[in-house]
Design a protein that fits this description.
Blueprint lengths: L5 H5 L46 E7 L2 E7 L2 E4 L2 E10 L9 E2 H4 L13 E4 L4 E4 L16 E2 L5 E8 L5 E6 L3 E10 L20 E3 L1 E6 L4 E6 L2 E7 H4 L9 H17 L3 E8 L6 H23 L3 E7 L12 H7 L1 E7 L22 E3 L4 E5 L2 E13 L2 E10 L4 E2 L20 H6 L5 E3 L3 E3 L3 E5 L8 E4 L9 E2 L3 E9 L5 E6 L3 E9 L1
Parallel strand pairs: 3-11, 16-17, 19-31, 21-31
Antiparallel strand pairs: 1-2, 2-4, 3-4, 4-9, 5-8, 6-7, 6-10, 7-12, 10-11, 13-14, 13-25, 14-15, 15-18, 16-18, 20-21, 21-22, 22-29, 23-28, 24-25, 24-30, 26-27, 30-31
Length: 515
């Protein structure tokens, strides 16, 4: 189990919501101070959006009770880069003194003022794009307070790697998913990254969207990264201690894995990799991991047939899923992994298991009915505002309303730690404590986590750092009666309804899926 220290998550940044004062060090701008349009740089100027061009995609979002009109212009592509331009307008019926800082709510975690947490999604191509970044995580985006006042539109801009698709979706923290933004060719991009405050060599992340699925009994996990699938089977389930002979129950789990390969895999090579913990010698662990890999391979071969070639590798303790010597880490590291290629990128693979979904560990609601949730003595309600099927994924909206008095963020509302086979997923303490990674979909024998991706490759034996296609940084203070809409993107399990479960928090069953 891994539980981050809450204070470390929120201490590095100042937070601003409607009329919430913020003090920062040095000469940094005050996010609650309105920006004079005549002094803004490219990407932060106030411009009229009353008559958008037909190709501009418009929508309206609710932010803590304030309605925000959003107009996203076609993505301009030139020289392998793409410029996103979006106009935001706080509707005129908002309280007269209301100010909302886009430079705070759309910023990257750990930074001050930017819109660096905007992401582009090519869902048919199962690809995510992050804004360009320089050294020190400088973002190639508008970087001012970008304050919204009622009826005063503000424009923000950001630069990404160029998609090859004809349209993309735009994922906005707190403001949802803007669908179907056209991609158009341009001669040059204006403003340049340098004009947006990101000089020098920049990195433009473009990554496959991955899926992650864990069995209810923690006997297995399945992950798909692009078209590379890995089914991890717990050695504690497969074998007795220090043994390499499959139990009868273990054979059923391996047979389920074979069925999943036949259903989702491309004919070819299947590689079985054995792993151990760090107890005993390197030589002993290497030999044991090889024997265990061979035992699983021997069970797989007759089930898969002649279309697949099954190979084995023993890794011993050399490639841990989780670093450390705790009992939880060692248990996660004792595993046999089955690796194969799926028929298409983004294919969902189910973790094999035999146990049904556990009983709910929190209040239960059905459909769009809200349920009460209490976290750290603060009361909320939560409801499924909608779940939509889109290009091989489900896009869900969860409406969370604070019913207690006072103010505070949603830290811990969706859980604040990882455990079991999710320990090695490479998620930051910030994402676990303040994000919505814990909002899972329940299947017959396993739970599906929100889609994620490799945001940075690990080095020196550390795991990759992952981004998650949810609101990752739910840090904005909410007052009594205010509602935050949280967006979650899951791989599509099929079916007309889904059940959304956050362990120890709440469960929403029979939520309808709309086309």
């Amino acid at each position: 189990m891994r539980r981050p220290a809450p204070a470390s998550v929120v201490a590095s940044v100042c937070l601003t919501v409607l009329l919430a004062a913020c003090t920062s060090g040095g000469d940094a701008p005050d996010p609650t101070t309105s920006v004079d349009a005549s002094s803004t740089s490219a990407g932060a100027s106030a411009t009229s959006t009353s008559t958008p061009a037909p190709s501009v995609v418009t929508t309206t979002a609710d932010y803590l009770g304030a309605r925000v009109d959003i107009a996203v212009h076609p993505l301009e592509v030139a020289g392998g880069k793409a410029l996103l331009t979006a106009d935001f307008t706080l509707q005129g019926d908002a309280p007269a003194a209301s100010i909302m800082s886009l430079g705070v709510i759309l910023r990257s975690p750990g930074s001050y003022l930017n819109v660096g947490r905007i992401r582009l999604l090519d869902l048919p191509g199962s690809t995510v794009f992050e804004v360009g970044r320089g050294s020190g995580r400088t973002a190639s985006t508008s970087g001012e307070p970008l304050n919204l006042e009622p009826g005063q539109p503000v424009t923000v801009q950001a630069i990404f790697a160029a998609p090859t698709s004809s349209s993309v979706d735009v994922l906005l923290p707190y403001l949802g998913l803007v669908e179907g933004v056209p991609v158009e060719t341009a001669t040059t991009l204006e403003p340049t990254p340098e004009a947006l405050g990101a000089p020098g060599d920049l990195t433009y992340l473009k990554a496959p969207i991955d899926a992650f699925d864990v069995a209810y009994d923690s006997s297995s996990a399945a992950r798909v990264e692009g078209d590379a699938a890995t089914v991890a089977l717990s050695s504690d389930v497969l074998f007795a201690s220090d043994e390499a002979t499959l139990t009868s129950a273990a054979k059923k789990v391996v047979d389920q894995a074979a069925d999943e390969i036949l259903a989702t895999g491309r004919a070819g090579v299947v590689t079985v990799v054995g792993h151990t913990d760090d107890v005993d010698t390197d030589a002993y662990n290497l030999a044991l991991s090889t024997k265990r890999a061979n035992a699983v391979a021997d069970e797989l071969r007759p089930r898969l047939g002649s279309g697949y070639t099954v190979r084995t590798v023993g890794k011993g303790e050399s490639d841990p899923a989780v670093r450390g010597t705790s009992a939880a880490a060692r248990k996660a590291n004792r595993r046999v992994e089955i690796r194969y290629t799926t028929t298409a990128a983004g294919t969902r693979v189910t973790a094999p298991a035999s146990e049904p979904a556990p009983k709910a560990s929190g209040p239960v609601g059905s459909g769009s009915t809200s349920v009460p949730v209490t976290v750290d003595d603060v009361d909320y309600t939560v409801a499924a505002a909608g779940v939509q099927r889109r290009d091989g994924f489900l896009v869900g909206s969860l409406a969370v309303t604070r019913t207690s008095d006072g103010r505070g963020s949603l830290q811990g509302f969706f859980g604040d730690y990882a455990e079991g086979l999710a320990l090695g997923r490479g998620l930051s303490a910030t994402t676990l404590a303040v994000g919505a990674f814990g909002a899972t979909l329940l299947g017959e024998s396993s739970r599906s986590y929100p889609a994620d991706y490799v945001a940075a490759k690990g080095s020196s034996g550390e795991p990759d750092r992952r981004g998650v296609l949810t609101d990752e940084f739910l840090d904005q203070p909410m007052g009594q009666g205010q509602t935050a809409t949280v967006t979650v993107v899951w791989p599509d399990p099929g079916g007309d309804t889904v059940s959304i479960d956050v362990p120890q928090r709440f469960r929403l069953t029979d939520v309808p899926v709309t086309p």
